[in-house]
Amino acid sequence: MEELDQQGEMLEATRAQRAAAFSVHVFTALGAGVALLALLEAVREHWTAMFWWLGVALAIDALDGPMARRLDVVRLQPDWSGEVLDLVVDFVTYVFVPAYAIAESGLLLPLAAPLLGVGIVVSGALYFADRRMKREDNHFRGFPGLWNVAAFYLFLLQWPPALSSLAVLVLIFATFLPFHVLHPVRVKRLRRLTLALITVWALLLAYTLLNDFEVRPAITAALCGIALYVVASDSAIRLLRSLKA
User: Fold this and answer.
1) What single DSSP character describes residue 124?
2) Cβ within 8 Å of residue 128, ≥6 positions away
C-alpha cells in the first residue's frame, strides 16, 4: 500500500511538472495576444502605447527561454515545439506589427511606404526561416529582423521621409548580408559590458516613451551609441584583429 502511495505521488509530481512546463508555452503564446493589443493601438495611431505593448512582448521573449530551460519544457512537453511557437510570436511582435507602424506612420515617402512595408514582412519571414540566422557563438547573421527597435529609432529621430525610406531599404537588404550582430544576452564576449549597456538602453527607452519621444539630444545620442555598439562591435573587433595579424 505504501509503495502504491509513493508511485501515486511520483505520478502526481510528474503531472504538476508537465502542467508547469506547458504554462511556459502559454506564457510565450501570450506574446501574440500582446502583439494584437499593440496593433490595435497602432491602428488608432497611439504610437507610444504601441511601443509599450511591444516592450511587454520583448520582456516575455526575454523571460520565456530561461523559464523553459529551468522547467525542462523540451523533455516534459515533447509534443509541443517551443521553438516554432517562439518564431511565430517573434514574427508578429518583431516584424509584422512594426512593419504596419512604419508603413502607416507617415515617416516614409507616401509612394514607398506600402512597398517598404511589404519588403519588411517578406524579408523578415525569410530571415526567420533561415537556419543560418544565428551563429554558434550566438551572433546573429545580418540584420536580425528587429523591426520593433528600428521603428523606435525612426520615431525617435524623425528624419525626413526620403532619408527614413532609404534607411528602411538599407535594413531590408542588410537582412541578407554576412555581417554579425551580437545577441544582447547570449554572446559571452564582453557580456558584462553588453548587459550594462542594454540595461541603460532599456531605461532610456522607457524614459523616452514616458516623454512621448520629446527628449534631450544627449538621450538620443546615448540611445544611438548603444545601438551602434550592438550592430557594429563584432565587425570592429574582427577588423582590429585582422589589422594586428
Assistant:
1) H
2) 87, 90, 91, 95, 145
